[in-house]
Write a structure and sequence with these properties.
Length: 398
């Protein structure tokens, strides 16, 4: 068996970023940027007023009170045409272009206008209430870096930079197949001794949430012919994922059925719990990930290996984030396998406390659905007492 860290490194070493495609900015939410995106203009493009008031030459109102002549107005989108002369001022509004020659704004609350004359009770301060050109960013500045997943506020920033479309990584196509004679879809008649196929629904949702496009190949029966047809059915996929058939039983046929079809094994079995019987290799030129059949094992392995594989295809910089919390109840020393315990998080005494579930069976989806995090227990970790600080992997983005 290999370690989790070694397994992750070997998976990532086999993955390359996908090609890019250009999409309209309005369709780019959640996509991963392929190249640095730079501004096409200064923002603001010209000096603008930050307040409603009057634009003037600071030297004309260096002392107060003072009266100046109003020679025009400058609402947003309607600049004043001309240049301010001595003793002149322009009525200006928030977002209005500062007239040529003006270097100060006095807000309307500090002014009294009668006809074309306005009296200011406070002296002008040059530069005050003026947003200079390029205050936010300048032409050529990097607004979003390659590898960044676009959020709503990023879209607004790019729009402000006059970016109508953006180059993003193509969504990885992930072919997903469940294996097992015992499986049937929800709502369908179950076979004698059969169970409902459920893991695929969670896995497809995870793939979509991580930026991929799931290709559902359905349920494959436990026979060589059905599994042998997988390469043709998944020919358009960038990554092939199976669930089940990865262990050592007589009906775990994934490797034996796919070997004649060009499957090359990289590794099998990881020193972890849950998820020990995981397969990774290549089916022809396509990376292949064989997840365990137990639902929680499948989901934990997806978080640890499938998620970073998709991120690598997207050229994304984000990784699984390990945090810390206080342990709510004592744990015994660990054995030779890295443990991932399902746990709830509770805020107490100004800190987060992780309470592991009493039952950690890898078939218990109710516990996984109720969990807020996974508690990480290194191989041979000593016993941990309540209150000890431990490492956790939050599940809030899964």
């Amino acid at each position: 068996m290999i370690s989790v860290e070694d397994a992750v490194e070997r998976v990532l070493a086999a993955i390359a970023p996908l090609e890019s495609e250009t999409v309209p900015l309005g369709n780019a939410l959640g996509r991963v940027v392929a190249d640095d995106v730079t501004a096409r203009l200064d923002q603001p493009p010209f000096p603008v007023s930050a307040m409603d008031g009057y634009a003037l030459r600071g030297r004309d109102a260096a002392r107060a009170p003072v009266a100046l002549r109003v020679v025009g107005s400058a609402p947003a989108g309607h600049p004043f045409e001309g240049q301010l002369g001595e003793g002149e001022t322009v009525r200006i509004f928030t977002g209005g272009v500062v007239p040529e020659g003006a270097d100060a704004i006095i807000i309307q609350e500090d002014a009294t206008q009668e006809g074309d004359k306005v009296t200011f009770k406070d002296a002008a301060i040059p530069g005050k209430h003026i947003r200079k050109a390029g205050l936010d960013f300048t032409r050529g500045a990097v607004l979003v870096s390659a590898g960044q997943r676009l959020r709503a506020r990023d879209l607004a920033l790019l729009a402000a930079g006059d970016i109508p479309s953006v180059a993003v990584r193509r969504r990885p196509r992930v072919a997903i197949a469940a294996t097992g004679d015992e499986l049937s879809p929800p709502g369908s008649p179950r076979k004698p001794g059969g169970i409902v196929a459920s893991s695929g629904y969670g896995l497809k949702a995870m793939v979509a949430g991580w930026g991929g496009e799931a290709i559902d190949l359905g349920i494959l029966p436990d026979n060589t012919d059905a599994l042998g047809a997988l390469p043709e059915r998944a020919k358009d996929a960038d990554l092939i994922v199976t669930m089940g058939g990865a262990s050592v039983g007589d009906h775990d046929l994934v490797r034996s059925a796919l070997a004649p079809k060009g499957f090359v094994l990289d590794f099998w079995k990881i020193a972890m719990r849950p998820g020990k019987p995981l397969i990774f290799g290549r089916l022809g030129a396509t990376p292949f990930l064989g997840l365990p059949g137990n639902p929680v094992s499948s989901f934990v392995c997806a978080i640890l290996f499938l998620k970073p594989a998709i991120a690598a295809m997207l050229g994304e910089t984000r990784k699984n984030e390990i945090r810390t919390a206080r342990l709510a109840s004592a744990l015994r020393e660990n054995d030779s396998r890295q443990d991932y315990l399902r746990a709830r998080l509770v805020s107490r005494d100004g800190d987060w406390w992780a309470e592991p579930f009493a039952m950690q069976d890898s078939s218990m989806q109710s516990a996984f659905a109720a969990a807020d995090c996974l508690i990480l227990r290194a191989p041979r970790a000593p016993a941990a007492a309540a209150g000890d600080r431990i490492e956790i992997l939050p599940l809030d983005d899964v």
